[in-house]
Amino acid sequence: MLARLAARIDAMYTPVTVPDVPVDFELETPPPATAGTVKDRYSEPGRRPTLADSLAKTKNKGSLKEVIPLNDRFLYLKALFSEDSNLYEKTIADLQSLKNLQQAETYLAQHFPAWELSTPAVQKFLSQLQDVF
């Protein structure tokens, strides 16, 4: 019985001969043109704007008062303006009336010489100031 089972298993695994297929045949329809990979399709520069391009266009929009979020306003009031909201509002209005970043930095240097440029609050304030100009 084992011999018959072994013979059947061997018959299952013997290679089947395939009739010879002519080598020079043509497909009825030509193969579709390959579009390449997804990377190839979208890696061409200049085809579509990137997220950075879109964000750069929205930069320099709005007033300084609109650019500064509420949490940052409280941070600046406490850390930079000694909780004097009138001084903060006057400074923001004065900065908004200036024409460029150079004038704004000069204004801050003249009116707030005690600010340490290395502190995170000052760095964040200057970063948001750059977004406006």
List the helices and strands and how they pair.
Blueprint: H1 2-12, H2 38-42, H3 51-58, H4 64-67, H5 70-79, H6 85-97, H7 101-111, H8 120-132
Helix pairs in contact: 5-8
Structure overview:
This protein is an all-alpha fold and 133 residues long. It has a domain at 58-132. It is built from eight helices and no strands. It has helices at 2-12, 38-42, 51-58, 64-67, 70-79, 85-97, 101-111, 120-132. The longest helix is centred in the C-terminal third of the chain and has 13 residues, at 85-97. The N and C termini lie far apart (92 Å). The relative contact order is 0.09. The model has no long low-confidence stretch (mean pLDDT 78).
Mean pLDDT: 78
* SSE sequence, one letter per element: HHHHHHHH
Alpha-beta classification: mainly alpha
Largest sheet: none
Low-confidence stretches: none
Using the alpha-carbon principal axes, give the shape. Answer: elongated
Number of helical regions: 8
Q: Measure the end-to-end span.
A: 92 Å
Range of helix content: 55-70%
Give me some keywords for this one.
133 residues, mainly alpha
Tell me briefly what this model is.
The protein contains eight helices and no strands. It is mainly alpha-helical.
